[in-house]
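ok here's the first one, seq then struct tokens
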Amino acid sequence: MAQTLLKRGMALVALLAAMACSSGEGVEAKAQGQTDLGKALIVYYSFTGNVRSIVSQLSEQTGADVVEVQPAEEGLDYAANGYEIGSSLIAGIRQHPNDAESYPDIKPIDIDLAAYDNIILCTPLWWSQMAAPMQTFLFRNGQKLAGKHVALIVSSSSSGISSTVADAKRLVPDAVWTGDALWINDRNRSQSSTLIANWLSEQNFQTTDETMKLYITIDGQTQAATFADTQAAQELQAKLQDGPVDVTLNSSGGFEIWGALGFSLTSSDERINAVPGDIILYDDSNICLLYGSNTWSYTRLGKFDGLSQSQLRDFLKAGESGIKVRLSLQSDATKIKNLKASTDAEEQVFNLSGQQMGQTTNGILVSKGRKVAHNK
């Protein structure tokens, strides 16, 4: 089965540029230099090729990784007979936006969204709404983008994009939107490279040095979390500067694992509707890692990046006791550039969070310091 590949650097740029509508625009984008977005991912869908051309310029200006959303059924002409297929799909989503059956199937995309701080969505619109395949991707992955910095670029012939923006915010309700969406249409498409450069400079992206991450390790598996904006979170971050903290946590109430930190932090309790992924301080000196929901008087410490509830349950070993947990600021562990090429006879592979994986693992992995589509 065909699989969308994700690549980085000039090889990707060359591929996309070859498919772009105008080679001159790519030259202009390169001349303007590159915007450093840290760990960034471009997710796009293109039907006519206009969005693919935009992504070519965007990737050249940012160096971001790129993944393409593709319909599961190939060869459909969504624009035929007055856009009969496309408009029917959009009508179905409008009528039942919360029903998974309303969204057309797309090809599997094996990408670790948790590895990225910034996500740029690039999509055309269909009958003023976001194109149906891109809506499918966001319907399935919106929860994984919670807390991430997300930006939006919309391409159209002439129609306004307000309904497409509304679709994005409906499907990714907990994102940190970086600013206004960029609208590229037939009137300004020839200037798209300059428009992209100006737009990038105005967006509030999260830079690599801007936020220190909290890393939580259980049984050799590590997940990243973003610190909350509380004094307790700042104190925990300062404590971890001196080295990792090991705690033993137990499942409780069917929604969390929790236990003593071994030290106290400054509480600023408020009644919180805590949800899966929240990291909470309870009673000054206890840490709670939630895989379910609960309402109580808590102080926020942080939130896991991009894990679904089922993934949280597995990672946190829901229902077990005596769970050994390490808290750390091991930011270097997630920097792919620090990985060394293997000297072993058998190739070593890592996921995008820097964790060594088995040889049978498929997906976008790191081998010998480079990102590759790994299929064994």
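and now the second one, same deal
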Amino acid sequence: MFPTTVAGSLPKPSWLAEPDKLWAPWRLQGTDLAAGKLDATLLAIKLQEDAGIDIVTDGEQARQHFVHGFLEFVDGIDFARKVEMGIRNNRYKAMVPTVRGALKLKGRVHAAEAQHARAHTKRKLKITMPGPMTISDTIADAHYGDKVKMANAFADLLNQEARALEKDGVDVIQFDEPAFNVFTDEVAGWGVDALQRAADGLKCTTAVHICYGYGIQANIDWKKSLGTQWKQYEAIFPALARSKINQVSIEVINSKVPIELLKLLDGKDILAGVIDVATDTVETPEQITGVISQVMKFVAKEKIICCTNCGMAPMHRDIATAKLVAMGRGAALARQKFA
């Protein structure tokens, strides 16, 4: 009861990349970098196991960014000529590469880290990838001329890699779709269809992570503008409930999402965020148990998985570690209390 996992990313060790940064520059090169990524993956697994995390991830140690870590392995993308584009409905601007030809994978994307992780843990293993809508919101298009067509092309590539990851022994494949709470009118139309296309044919557990973003200043400022209740999910949860995706990951602790909206996800496993990644304050096990008790008012306890609100990549490593330990202890306390 109340198994634990993380949304995906963990901070990288300082010898691999600059600490406390999103888009942290690598500190190694060539074969040293390739070896360092695998060493860091092993450290991430050990960190999670020691903290009592039941479903571990590779910590996204081999990627500089959750979207671009996939795009680097795709032909048809011009990284040399980047253009400025508004991201997440112009919440912030970024220099992004451009799609200039038909998309296809150069080869495997996450084989090295997935196979390395699988060989070094007996626990359930989760690998995350960006969802097709979020990719389409993070790259410029000079080829397809239609956002939906481009998203579906990316969905096919994601599915190709997901099927290979399943053969690698990955237990859970999660697609990250933060764009879902920005383009709510499009989610029920083509967003969920593209997501299901990415997950087509998978027999392993499938999940989607939707959130209000990393604990970076641009996201914190945006959330302040959303008022006392964040109700975007009300428009998209019914479509997700009808989908074939098994699990939905959503922030709970310190968020202003009306928790009763979880009823709209009836039938899904809920990865409930019990760890706030936007603060350095470490949660207590009692706080985490309290969050679980609130979720239990709307979700059957056997459907609840304890999780972080979002990825932890930009966090200070010691704080992230302490938060994972707290989550492991909080889930253990909840098992005792609600058995």
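notes on #2: The mean pLDDT is 93. The radius of gyration is 19 Å.
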